[in-house]
């Protein structure tokens, strides 16, 4: 019959949020939201897993523990541990006696520890300035002044520091006034590579290097900040391999930069697929982030999205030759490489992100994490991979999750992914498990604009929202109705972010649906200029905001709020009150407009949550209430 998943099962579904592989490849350390392997906590704790053996809780803490990383000799683990005020501080755990030494006391905390190659120094990002009084007025002058998941940039701006691993005073290396991230030591330990965004006078993102002992900063690359910065890593000879900038839909290429000459040598892109395509899962996606690793042969290891799968690829920095190292009905992402051993995060329809170590020499795998997920072994649905065409004949991929209970045709929910330049795929979704356990079929469509299908497929969405994307979703519904899977009289739509946009658009343009749920939706493009990514909105729409009536007419034409009075379908609006990406006003105007027009509607508000907190380690009660609301709403209108 399959596992019946309910909202309360979040309490027994801990997640891994960060991990590293020991230098000898024999063990892993990971931060997981559990202290017993089976019960969910709201704060991650550190676990040590011996390959082929058992896992042990390293050091229980009342605060969160995150970002663990092994020292070069494997004897110590640097990590970030919350202090009494909830600010993360650099700590080092000795694997010999399990003692923990806290090395910093920054008022705002630190993050992302990185060991120097000799193990004597740890780089962190942090800010030693006093906290701002939140009750006092403040002035905004930055082009990028707030970030979803962070808040005001003035409050979270960090610089690059080094800290003696044996203890001592931190040394500040940078003075950018923005957000420093993605730090990496050069192989000889002489320089640090890092990224900066949200600096006081620019909206750009920059890759930079600085001497490890302090000194002049060198800029490697500057490009427009469009949410996803270039990835970069050192090669053994001091050159830097990086990706080309993202322009909201383009395929990424690899480039080798020579700091000595300032020259860039293109390597091209994989033969198939998309470097760093964004996958949307219904659990924490922290482990499945685009990353660029370099092995001992100076080849690049990264994941490449091919449709609904992500594969592990190796790309030569000599000639750009592309080799697929792992592929299957799953999504993988490399987290660390040690010799021939690669630590992967892997998720499937049945399994949230777990850790495996892949031996590149013989292709064998070993489990590298131990969490109690055996109860998820039996899927509550059967997976149908779909291939159909949009209204103009364009091939489209999707999936239908047929519940194992009941008999078709089924009440069916169209689950629309966000992004929107992202994709559904072979990954775990608690939303899908919940809905299919309740007897609903779930349709997932990678519509026009989705990643992983080529640049032309993605860029079709730019300046033409609500056209081919909506058409592809409706074509998918027609396809599964034709297969006898979906009941045409009991259809629902649901999505978050860009998925909330599509749900709002479909329900204001079609009477095919019996109910819908729009979570953190985009409903008014003019209002989205007030989000934390206004520059991206202009790229998506094809016109910058405020360019005149003709250009702004496109904002109105493609906004669901323009057509709200046409909606007769009951719609639940879910808002995260801390959302800066799709601000709460987006859902507010939709709810108010539906109410004014007499449409059946309700609103669920989740206090404090940022944009995608429901898929992270946010308030467990709020996440549980949100899940329960999904089945409650569809049960009212889709059940016989």
From TrEMBL:
GO terms for molecular function: serine-type endopeptidase activity. The keyword Hydrolase applies. Residues 428-639 form the Peptidase S9 prolyl oligopeptidase catalytic domain. InterPro entries: 6-blade_b-propeller_TolB-like, AB_hydrolase_fold, Peptidase_S9_cat, WD40. Coiled coil: none annotated. Pfam families: PD40, Peptidase_S9. Keywords: Hydrolase, Protease, Serine protease. GO terms for biological process: proteolysis. This is Peptidase S9 prolyl oligopeptidase. It comes from Modestobacter italicus (strain DSM 44449 / CECT 9708 / BC 501).
